[in-house]
Amino acid sequence: MIAYLSLLLRLAIWFLLTADFSLANITIGFCVALLLPPRFAPPPVLKEWLRTLWEIIVAIPIAYWEALEMIFRPHTREEIALEQVKPNRTPGLIFLDIFSITFTPKTIVLKYHQDGWYEVHRVRRTKRR
C-alpha cells in the first residue's frame, strides 16, 4: 500500500512540474516514477500518510483566512524559528510536512536540517500596546 502512495506522490510532483495531462505526459510520468530508485528508509505507516494528507486539507481554509487577515490587518513582525520534525518521518512525509507549512501565507520553510529541524520564517502582527 505504501509503495502505491510513494508512486502517487512521485506522479503528483511530476504533474506539478510539467502541468500537462496529455496521454504522452502521463505515460512518461508513470515511467519516470517507476524508474526512480526507491528510498531505503523505514516504511511509513498508512496512518501517518492519512494524518499528513488531512493536515494539508485543513491547511486550505487556513490559508484563505490568513491571506484575508494579512490584507486587512498588516503584519510587520518577522521571525525565524526552528521546528522539530515529527519522529520517524520518511522523505515523502517530510516533503508533505514542508508543503503544508509553506502552503499558508504566513509561513515558509527556509531550510530542512538533516538532524531533524525545519527552519521556518513566520510573519506576525505587531502587538498593540
From TrEMBL:
GO cellular component: membrane
Alphabetized GO MF terms: monoatomic cation transmembrane transporter activity
The keyword Kinase appears for this protein: no
Entry coiled-coil feature ranges: none
Keywords attached to this entry: Membrane, Transmembrane, Transmembrane helix
Signal sequence segment: none
Entry's transmembrane regions: 12-37, 49-68
Protein name: Multisubunit sodium/proton antiporter, MrpE subunit
Organism: Rubidibacter lacunae KORDI 51-2
